[in-house]
Amino acid sequence: KMKRALEITLISGENLRLNKKPAKNAVVAVRVEPGHECTTRPAPKKGTNPEWNENIVVDLPLHVGFITVEVKCKSSSGSYKLVGGATVPVSDFAGDFGAPKGYVHFLSYRLWDSHGVRTDGIINISAKMAAPAPALAHTYGVPQPEIGVLAGDQRKKVAAGGLVTGVPVWCAKPCRC
Fold first, then answer.
1. pTM for the full predicted model
2. Across the chain, what does the average pLDDT equal?
């Protein structure tokens, strides 16, 4: 299989709640294909607006049309519970829209819960196509609940059909970098 490398920075979350309580020990899991997940360390900042600022480099096969980003938090029983997730179209950061190679895309997505209901939570990430992924990327064991709403043909997970859970949130303020 032909692959590309994706460097994704999991920046922060906004208004992250589980059962109306602030998310504790929140981690972010990035899944490119079933069974292949990379996860951040728990956010050092507790509460509804955690910050990770953690880079993950993953192999991105050419046939993949989207990646899944999920926020999870550790419950008192020690298991990880899904706060919310978003399905990010690869075209949001790897499209042929004139962006130079290595261009960093800053993106924000609304999170959806495990029942396909939109939450008030938002995940802020940056993504860019990078050099090939190293043999060992950051991985920490976390269960992988699946979320989403079926749209179109399940067999073709492309823009015209597949699993849809994320919608970009656009900011009206200009970027001051």
1. 0.71
2. 78
